[in-house]
Amino acid sequence: MAEEFEATAGRLDAVVADRLSLTRADAQRAIAAGRVRVDGELRPKSHRLAGGERVSVDLAGMGDLPSEGPPVEVRYRDPSLLVVSKPGGLPTHPTAGRPTGTLVNRLIGMGLPLSTAGGPLRPGIVHRLDAGTSGLLIVASTDEAHQALSAMFRRHEVDRRYLALVRGAVTHDRFAVDAPLGRVGSRIRVRAVTGREAETLLEVRERFDRATLLEAAPRTGRTHQIRVHLSAVSHPVLGDRTYGGGGDDARRLGLSRPFLHSWRLAFEHPITGERIEREDPLPPDLAEALRRVGGEG
């Protein structure tokens, strides 16, 4: 079944990659295979979208996704949905060029029912975490729940809280970063004119000599949003080599990935109306990094 969406402005391959969480190469392969149409017409990968066009992408026929282990921890489950703890370093879902080694493969290996509304490469996936980010993720078990959860995310009705250890001393105890984001090549950048609206609320949880532990609450859900916003205010997430958080201080803490953890989720159940609130402790690698930074000085 083809997935349809309203286009934002930009190159066709970049827009398809961003909207469907594909790599640029996978989006280009789908376009070359005639699987992407713009207002019903085939267009080249470099076609410039003005915004507002109807884009249809058919990824059917990719084959069954392999089931893999080990299982992931489940923090909540009922017939409609579950909340799982994604390990750091694990991509959320497969792509056309990488059908294995993801959270979805592990969920399939656990024999869990997964919605089909997100397409063949994203069963159950309503939202995603970057591969390097650990923590809580909502997974839909039915298409009814998937569609209702997707609408809740669009209306910003899911309260998501992350813990981020960032470089340097943050000046304010509470602040917000409101900066539109857009893709530039393989990275996301602040794009004041052409970017999509993005806002992150931030609060200091603990201060150290050369780092600050923040709680981040993204109001929107753009790709790499927290990481890019923190880099833009000169406090990159430690361990995040893509956006300026690598270097000696990250290595001293033993960080091989960004110190970013989805520690709390709260939302109204889309089917029953029950209030669901779950928390996830820091995994061992981030807990050890926090212990180390507390011992510096």
Polypeptide structure, described:
The chain is α+β, with helices and mostly antiparallel strands and 297 residues long. It folds into three domains: 3-57, RNA-binding S4 domain (Structural Genomics Hypothetical 15.5 Kd Protein In mrcA-pckA Intergenic Region, Chain A, Roll), CATH 3.10.290; 62-155, Pseudouridine synthase, CATH 3.30.2350; 160-262 and 286-295, Pseudouridine synthase (2-Layer Sandwich), CATH 3.30.2350.10. The chain is built from seven helices and 17 strands. It has helices at 12-20, 24-32, 103-109, 143-154, 225-232, 248-252, 284-295; strands at 3-6, 10-11, 36-38, 41-42, 48-49, 54-57, 73-77, 81-86, 134-140, 159-167, 174-178, 181-184, 187-190, 199-207, 211-218, 260-268, 275-279. The strands form four sheets. Strands 7, 8, 9, 10, 11, 14, 15, 16 and 17 form a nine-stranded mixed sheet that branches. A four-stranded antiparallel sheet has the order 1-6-3-4. Strands 2-5 form a two-stranded antiparallel sheet. A hairpin with a 6-residue loop joins strand 16 (260-268) and strand 17 (275-279). Helix 1 crosses helix 2 (24-32). The chain is globular, with a radius of gyration of 19 Å. The model has no long low-confidence stretch (mean pLDDT 93).
